[in-house]
Design goal:
binds glycinamide ribonucleotide, seven-stranded mixed beta sheet, globular, 6 helices, 2 domains, alpha/beta
Length: 194
């Protein structure tokens, strides 16, 4: 992993698919003096993503790839990342699965946020499953991406108590708030030299 020197910010790309609240949060974080990243580029897998409006408004460079032709889309994305000298990819609500060969090319430099206490509840519909199983705790995890789904090295987690009045929607809202605290903290932990 290339680390930030604390002076020069690491050029980063954010990958999104939907709402983009984590992307907005990371973008706002990147503007702070003490942030180790600068957001250079956003890749969206969905042209109707809410986040796209934010990107236009804030004049952030973005590209849309629907991943229907995954192989060729990934090749095009890799070219863009190389051209723009991107050193870090932050997945933020990105709902496509990157190929093993793409991940290898950015080995250790792709970070993801997942709305559960990994290794529990990998994959989709985490909040529904947490509620169904009457879990007492849930939370979110920032981890390095490897070739297995939601399985790379954990950087940081935040935990909360699940109330017996929670449903998947209320839990999702509570965890999203935690995610906005966790992602910047985890990036600082990962990128700043001790
Ligand atoms: C977030 O809860 C994120 O953890 C989750 O999607 C949501 C996106 O929200 N990601 C995954 O489930 C990835 N497996 P956002 O678009 O508002 O950031």
């Amino acid at each position: 992993m290339v680390r930030s020197t604390g002076i020069k910010k690491l050029k980063s790309a954010i990958f999104i698919s939907g709402n983009g609240s984590n992307m907005k949060n990371l973008f706002n974080f990147s503007k702070k003096k003490k942030s180790p990243i600068v957001v250079d580029l956003v890749i969206s897998s969905n042209k109707r993503a809410n986040g796209v409006q934010f990107l236009k408004k804030n004049k952030i460079y973005f590209e849309i790839f629907n991943f229907k032709q995954k192989n060729s889309d990934e090749k095009k994305i890799l070219k863009i990342l190389k051209k723009r000298e991107i050193h870090l990819i932050c997945l933020a609500g990105f709902m496509k699965i990157l190929s093993g060969s793409f991940i290898k090319k950015f080995n250790g430099k792709i970070v993801n946020i997942h709305p559960s206490l990994l290794p529990k509840y990998k994959g989709l519909n985490t909040h529904e499953r947490v509620i169904l199983n009457k879990e007492k705790f849930s939370g979110c995890t920032v981890h390095i991406v490897n070739s297995k789904l939601d399985s790379g090295k954990i950087i940081m987690q935040k935990k909360l108590r699940v109330s017996n009045r929670d449903n998947p929607e209320t839990l999702s809202r509570k965890i999203l708030k935690l995610e906005h605290l966790l992602y910047p903290k985890a990036l600082k932990k990962l990128l700043f030299k001790p």
